[in-house]
């Protein structure tokens, strides 16, 4: 093929000035078979180029290079990677026609490139490996520099990536369809990069031969063209530090999180206050507010129901002590999110709203005393409650909010601000995390109560709970009330699974403390998932056994120290102590007889505690009595030997006496 060698080394008509490096063709200049003429006058600065090892002719054997056929052509077709490169070379040969049309080209891996990169400078396959094709620009340096300078609109890396993306898929090239050839290996990405990219990485000018080029920093290998030197140097950079992939846009939810994260530490958002965030007062020791024990406000009862978390707690508690107000329940529970409280209170407020959906409307007194803009009553923060200064502050806050798109629009989430007619009762009644401002106590939450039933086996607890629930559901004069009946261990799906395990006796070999821990675990879930949410809704919760059973069974009867159980109770129960505990008392022999009769009827075997000896049950009875004596304000002992109706009557009387707001009426209770 010496005949084609001379012509091909001079450059094919479609690809003047290019040669392939490392290809094994018959025009190999090492073998001396190629023509000498193109060896001189093709390299930059007129240097001879082809004396280097492995510089061979481009285009030998290519279909449009002449009638001669390359002997390795069939081999290329069998190797997909090499086939892709061969087609890239083909594409380069058709480049001039494509360039005139402004078409994209394909590099050696089949990726499309803007034409200014492809035409004369790009086809440098860096590694010197035997059998690999490298294209070397052998045109004069000035011409190379002109071709290497990309147009401004293609200079940035983003443009380059977009070009790559556009090149994917099948693309018509020179009248033929060529499939894509993705880079076979990661290293091919570095090898496929073009020279402008190399220049950028080297901090050199694209022209490549002036001051500031890589040659100035590295001793130049004068035998190599400047672009090839640059590529060899850049390859190291590229393989170590590949170009950054475009980052996907952050998800809107993440953006929102980041916006919240920008809040200074200690500041929390107040959804009820459109004014935004508040910073709780710093602790004396610099501790975080959420780590601080909550301050006690008012009575222990107020603390139990979480009134300490309400700004109007003292006032509400005063109302309740007078008997004219309503209790707030169930806003304790550190694990429960505030919006849940808000939802519960909102629901309660909606229930209490007058029929027809009418809301409280602002009266003249509202406008007189610190009214808001356009005659609306001042709402939200107590500082805005009265006086022109506070009204002006309020207006300023509204104006600011109007221009802040990050803040929710007023009423956008369907919340209502209920303002009673007449003078504002007490603007301290702002509930953290919810919407109510200045509403009377009975609007804030529906009153509820937490009543537990305790006693030995077969005392009649389940029977009496059912009866009391029916009585309480009638509710007071204002209408029916929600009553939740539950039991321990159990009451929630997870707690029921613990119940099944512990009553099967699985923890008995581990001792009473292990059993107490299992009961505590069940209680934790029960409280979190059922009891506290129900109390927060204002429901009455009737529970068959609670923490007093742990004291009696695992403590007094099981031998566990009271201090241990008290600590466990403090951790698990916290402030959610029962309002009233009804202890059904009867001799254990009678209770066990009833329980066995019940079990036979239900065809179940006695559980782990029913199977205990009589002496164990006697200790239980003594323990329950002792608890009642220790806490007379909470506990009432009821004689459970009486007939069921008589016991039910005694239970109602106890509830009416201790929790009068739950009683449906005096006539019913009598
Ligand atoms: N006051 C009562 N007098 C007689 N039998 C009763 C009385 N109360 C409940 N029972 C019966 O005793 C059995 C156990 O009652 P139950 O309510 O299940 O007790 P506990 O829940 O305390 O184990 C049931 O069969 C029930 O019908
Ligand atoms: C709640 C609780 C129950 N128990 C025991 C008492 C009961 O024997 C058993 C619960 O069974 P249960 O069937 O609810 O009792 P009763 O037969 O009285 O209706 O679990 C404890 O030992 N510790 C506890 O804390």
From TrEMBL:
Low complexity compositional bias, start-end: 354-367
Pfam family, one: Thymidylate_kin
Name by which UniProt lists this protein: Thymidylate kinase
SUPFAM superfamilies from the UniProt entry: P-loop containing nucleoside triphosphate hydrolases (SSF52540)
Regions of compositional bias (Basic residues) in chain numbering: 40-55, 151-174, 381-418
Domain Thymidylate kinase-like span(s) in chain numbering: 453-650
Entry's EC annotation: 2.7.4.9
A molecular function (GO) term: ATP binding
Gene3D superfamilies associated with the record: P-loop containing nucleotide triphosphate hydrolases
Family indicated by similarity: Belongs to the thymidylate kinase family.
A GO CC term assigned to this protein in UniProt: cytosol
EC top class named in words: transferase
Region described as Disordered: spans on this chain: 1-188, 202-429
Function: Phosphorylation of dTMP to form dTDP in both de novo and salvage pathways of dTTP synthesis.
Binding-site list for ATP: 455-462
């Amino acid at each position: 093929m010496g005949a084609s060698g001379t012509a091909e080394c001079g450059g094919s008509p479609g690809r003047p000035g290019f040669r392939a490096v490392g290809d094994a063709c018959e025009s190999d200049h090492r073998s001396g078979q190629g023509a000498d003429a193109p060896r001189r006058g093709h390299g930059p600065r007129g240097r001879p180029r082809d004396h280097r090892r492995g510089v061979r002719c481009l285009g030998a054997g290519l279909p449009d290079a002449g009638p001669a056929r390359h002997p390795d052509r069939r081999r290329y077709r069998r190797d997909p990677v090499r086939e892709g490169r061969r087609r890239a070379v083909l594409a380069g040969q058709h480049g001039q026609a494509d360039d005139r049309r402004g078409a994209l080209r394909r590099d050696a891996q089949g990726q499309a490139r803007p034409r200014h990169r492809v035409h004369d400078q790009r086809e440098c396959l860096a590694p010197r490996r035997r059998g690999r094709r490298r294209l070397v620009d052998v045109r004069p340096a000035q011409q190379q520099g002109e071709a290497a300078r990309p147009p401004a609109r293609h200079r940035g890396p983003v443009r380059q990536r977009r070009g790559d993306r556009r090149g994917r898929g099948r693309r018509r090239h020179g009248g033929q369809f060529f499939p894509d050839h993705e880079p076979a290996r990661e290293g091919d990405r570095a090898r496929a990069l073009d020279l402008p990219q190399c220049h950028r990485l080297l901090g050199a000018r694209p022209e490549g031969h002036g001051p500031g080029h890589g040659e100035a920093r590295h001793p130049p290998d004068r035998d190599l063209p400047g672009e090839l030197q640059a590529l060899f140097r850049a390859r190291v950079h590229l393989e170590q530090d590949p170009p950054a992939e475009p980052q996907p846009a952050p998800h809107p939810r993440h953006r929102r999180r980041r916006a919240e994260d920008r809040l200074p530490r200690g500041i929390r958002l107040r959804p009820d206050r459109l004014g935004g965030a508040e910073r709780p007062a710093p602790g004396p020791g610099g501790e975080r507010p959420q780590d601080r024990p909550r301050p006690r406000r008012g009575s222990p009862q107020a603390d139990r129901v979480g009134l300490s978390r309400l700004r109007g707690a003292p006032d509400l508690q005063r109302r309740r002590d007078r008997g004219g107000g309503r209790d707030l329940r169930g806003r304790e529970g550190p694990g429960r999110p505030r919006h849940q409280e808000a939802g519960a209170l909102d629901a309660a407020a909606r229930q209490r709203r007058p029929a027809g959906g009418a809301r409280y409307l602002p009266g003249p007194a509202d406008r007189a005393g610190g009214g808001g803009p356009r005659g609306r009553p001042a709402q939200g923060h107590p500082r805005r409650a009265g006086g022109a200064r506070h009204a002006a502050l309020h207006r300023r806050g509204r104006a600011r909010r109007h221009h802040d798109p990050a803040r929710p629009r007023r009423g956008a989430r369907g919340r209502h601000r209920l303002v009673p007619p007449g003078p504002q009762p007490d603007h301290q009644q702002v509930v953290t995390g919810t919407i109510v401002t200045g509403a009377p106590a009975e609007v804030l939450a529906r009153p509820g109560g937490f009543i537990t039933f305790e006693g030995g086996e077969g005392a009649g607890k389940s029977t009496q709970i059912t009866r009391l629930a029916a009585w309480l559901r009638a509710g007071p004069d204002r209408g029916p009330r929600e009553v939740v009946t539950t039991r321990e261990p159990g009451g929630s799906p997870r707690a029921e699974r613990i119940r099944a395990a512990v009553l099967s006796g699985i923890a008995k070999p581990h001792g009473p403390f292990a059993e107490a821990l299992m009961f505590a675990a069940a209680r934790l879930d029960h409280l979190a998932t059922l009891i506290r949410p129900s109390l927060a809704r204002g429901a009455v919760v009737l529970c068959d056994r609670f923490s007093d059973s742990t004291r009696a069974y695992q403590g007094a009867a099981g031998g566990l120290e009271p201090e241990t159980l008290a600590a466990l109770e403090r951790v698990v129960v916290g402030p959610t102590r029962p309002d009233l505990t009804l202890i059904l008392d009867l001799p254990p022999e009678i209770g066990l007889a009833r329980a066995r009769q019940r079990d036979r009827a239900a065809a179940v075997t006695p559980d782990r505690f029913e199977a205990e000896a009589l002496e164990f049950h006697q200790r239980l009875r003594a323990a329950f009595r002792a608890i009642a004596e220790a806490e007379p304000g909470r506990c009432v002992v009821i004689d459970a030997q009486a007939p069921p109706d008589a016991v039910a009557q005694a239970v109602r009387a106890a509830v009416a006496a201790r929790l009068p707001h739950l009683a449906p009426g005096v006539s019913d209770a009598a």
